[in-house]
Amino acid sequence: MRVAVIIPAAGTGRRMHQATPKQYLCLGGRPILAHTLEVFENLPEINEITVVAQTKALEFCQNQIITPFGFKKVLRLVPGGKERQDSVYNAIKALQRQDDYDLIVVHDGVRPFVTPEEVRRVIGAALEHGAAILATPANDTVKKVNHTGRIQKTLNRQDIWLAQTPQAFQAPIIWRAFVEAYGRDFYGTDEASLVEAIGIPVFAIPGSVYNIKVTTPEDLVLAEAILALRQQ
Ligand code: C5P
């Protein structure tokens, strides 16, 4: 079995309000992206990794993260696109031949706390069902709110799950989903939504609230706390 991982890390980090994009900010003395890559580098089930970085950060990413931390499974470093979806598509195109892979796993560069066990569970479910993602059931009551702040609807909490990554797919499924999405100019905020759009079932595997996406300054505070907990 051959499993390729795509790590989109080409965001600008607008919501972090810092000059350095969030994936390069340090957590416990190491860049967030290095923490994330380490999980996949050390997992025997993973054969290779493609990292996506902003065009202007390609050199930085190679010289400050991939080379010094010795990530040997990173076979490709490709430039990102305007949206996250464009970045992931650049990586898929760089893989070239879908026949070479059984599974393609996509994981945000800014989710450093995913565990090997969680990755294994998503891989197992994708092998069985074709497509699977890590997600957590909503604990809060979820409202649909319009631009004036007025609540339009209360959604049924039992049916609401919050999507995370990794998101894993049998190779022909993700390939087709991306080709068809671009054929229809469809944009989603994750890969699963593209697969759902072509009518292929995607399964949600219960994850952990610790698998945060480090997006805002508040997330950095949480990230330091989670790191401290893991180091105990
Ligand atoms: O923007 P969002 O929070 O969804 O970003 C999730 C991941 O996608 C981050 O690791 C970010 O660097 C990456 N991304 C990307 N290309 C973009 C936007 C985001 O690779 N154009």
TrEMBL record:
SUPFAM superfamilies xref list: Nucleotide-diphospho-sugar transferases
Transmembrane domains' residue ranges: none
Reaction it catalyzes: 2-C-methyl-D-erythritol 4-phosphate + CTP + H(+) = 4-CDP-2-C-methyl-D-erythritol + diphosphate
GO molecular function, one term: 2-C-methyl-D-erythritol 4-phosphate cytidylyltransferase activity
Entry keyword set: Isoprene biosynthesis, Nucleotidyltransferase, Transferase
Annotated coiled-coil segments of the chain: none
EC annotation from Swiss-Prot or TrEMBL: 2.7.7.60
Pfam families in UniProt: IspD
Family annotation (PROSITE patterns): ISPD
Feature type site, description Transition state stabilizer: 15, 22
UniProt KW Transferase keyword: yes
Family: Belongs to the IspD/TarI cytidylyltransferase family. IspD subfamily.
PANTHER family documented for this protein: 2-C-METHYL-D-ERYTHRITOL 4-PHOSPHATE CYTIDYLYLTRANSFERASE, CHLOROPLASTIC
Function: Catalyzes the formation of 4-diphosphocytidyl-2-C-methyl-D-erythritol from CTP and 2-C-methyl-D-erythritol 4-phosphate (MEP).
Protein name per UniProt: 2-C-methyl-D-erythritol 4-phosphate cytidylyltransferase
Gene: ispD
